[in-house]
Amino acid sequence: SQPQPLALLAGSCGTQFYQFANACLPARQARIKMAKILIIEDDAALSGSLAERLKAEGFEVSLALDGEAGLKILETSKPDLILLDLVLPRKTGFEVLSELKKRKETAAIAVLVLTNLDSPFDIEKALQFGVVKGYLVKANYSLDEVVKKIEQILV
Asked: Do the Cβ atoms of 14 and 24 come closer than 8 Å?
């Protein structure tokens, strides 16, 4: 079932709460749940699982299976957060980060890197772009932990 749109309910939820998916949430938490996330990940099974889980949590999700497709989506859509793999076909995650930094309209979008690259060199290289708000190595994190990290970044 699709989450219901946010509705300020002075009566049943109180003035500082919003109704979301039949529950009363603090306004800040409700805004996080309505955030737009772009997943740029070439592993179709992983990106599908991530998208399904994030949608169940109330996020609006777009998918791209390569870096070039992700940049194309960004021409018409502005997500609140990008979940980015670094090892991608057509344009690598590092190339995507470089493009994000160059473009005025994308320079402020938060990025959470989710990759298998775990060397200090790769981590430092990704962080140098200035838009990376978190760096997770896929093998070390569950879907629950990824969702938690996304929520921390969006607060």
From this structure: yes
